[in-house]
Amino acid sequence: MSDALLTLAGVHTHIGQYHILQGVDLVVPRGGLTMLLGRNGAGKTTTLRTIMGLWQASQGQITFDGRDITRAHTADLAASGIAYVPEDMGIFAGLTVRENMVLAARSGPMDQKRLAWIYELFPALEKFWNWPAGNLSGGQKQMLAIARAIVEPRELLIVDEPSKGLAPAIIGHLIQAFRELKSTHTTILMVEQNFSMATALGDTVAVMDDGRVVHAGSMHELAHDGDLQRRLLGLSLDAHQ
Ligand SMILES: Nc1ncnc2c1ncn2[C@@H]1O[C@H](COP(=O)(O)OP(=O)(O)OP(=O)(O)O)[C@@H](O)[C@H]1O
């Protein structure tokens, strides 16, 4: 097994008076795709936001590439190579696709070779390059959000439910794009509710319930064990297939 790029140890997060994360232990191996699964309200998004410094952990430790980032600021995490695609995608609807991409490239002009690769992943972005991002379809917006996150090479890509609200054909396209990304050995942490997407892409899996990780292992094992799926994912699995 490869070494860990990101580790959460006993992480607690309070939002106001609510105790949401209750001791999250999570290991994201370097170079693989880790799927974070669990029913609605289990704490997946809160876990991602806590990693990104958008919520503060009240207890526990978060380590990235051997460095303690528990109290790091969001902007510093981005500078250290973590890209985050939130559930609402965070794109600028009033700006063109090109302007959205230019703003995402922090270290200067976009690398043209990398841009050509991104066009191959998501041809629609080239086609609608000068369109306002707000005019794109839901799937194209998700593609733009992912493209912004990978406009420069990243150590870790964190993506919250990329398939949400998308048609099966578009989800198929996203799966292909993430496969291509995986082949570049980018480490990815992804929250998903779509179980077929999760099994198509995940190398390792962590399942959350009630603010904790209640199962961690290989995706292959979970994909082939119906009893484990029912026990861990139960209704949320039925509801999202
Ligand atoms: N800003 C907030 N204020 C109060 N409670 C919140 C807030 N954000 C999340 N919660 C609560 O924290 C719990 C975990 O939410 P979270 O969004 O992390 O779950 P999730 O596993 O990502 O679920 P979903 O799939 O529905 O997004 C839920 O009970 C939710 O109601």
TrEMBL record:
<dbReference type="InterPro" id="IPR027417">
    <property type="entry name" value="P-loop_NTPase"/>
</dbReference>
<dbReference type="GO" id="GO:0016887">
    <property type="term" value="F:ATP hydrolysis activity"/>
</dbReference>
<feature type="domain" description="ABC transporter">
    <location>
        <begin position="6"/>
        <end position="235"/>
    </location>
</feature>
<protein>
    <submittedName>
        <fullName>High-affinity branched-chain amino acid transport ATP-binding protein</fullName>
    </submittedName>
</protein>
<dbReference type="Pfam" id="PF00005">
    <property type="entry name" value="ABC_tran"/>
</dbReference>
<keyword id="KW-0067">ATP-binding</keyword>
<dbReference type="InterPro" id="IPR003593">
    <property type="entry name" value="AAA+_ATPase"/>
</dbReference>
<dbReference type="InterPro" id="IPR052156">
    <property type="entry name" value="BCAA_Transport_ATP-bd_LivF"/>
</dbReference>
<dbReference type="GO" id="GO:0015807">
    <property type="term" value="P:L-amino acid transport"/>
</dbReference>
<dbReference type="GO" id="GO:0005524">
    <property type="term" value="F:ATP binding"/>
</dbReference>
<keyword id="KW-0813">Transport</keyword>
<keyword id="KW-0547">Nucleotide-binding</keyword>
<dbReference type="GO" id="GO:0015658">
    <property type="term" value="F:branched-chain amino acid transmembrane transporter activity"/>
</dbReference>
<keyword id="KW-0029">Amino-acid transport</keyword>
<dbReference type="InterPro" id="IPR003439">
    <property type="entry name" value="ABC_transporter-like_ATP-bd"/>
</dbReference>
<dbReference type="InterPro" id="IPR017871">
    <property type="entry name" value="ABC_transporter-like_CS"/>
</dbReference>
<comment type="similarity">
    <text>Belongs to the ABC transporter superfamily.</text>
</comment>
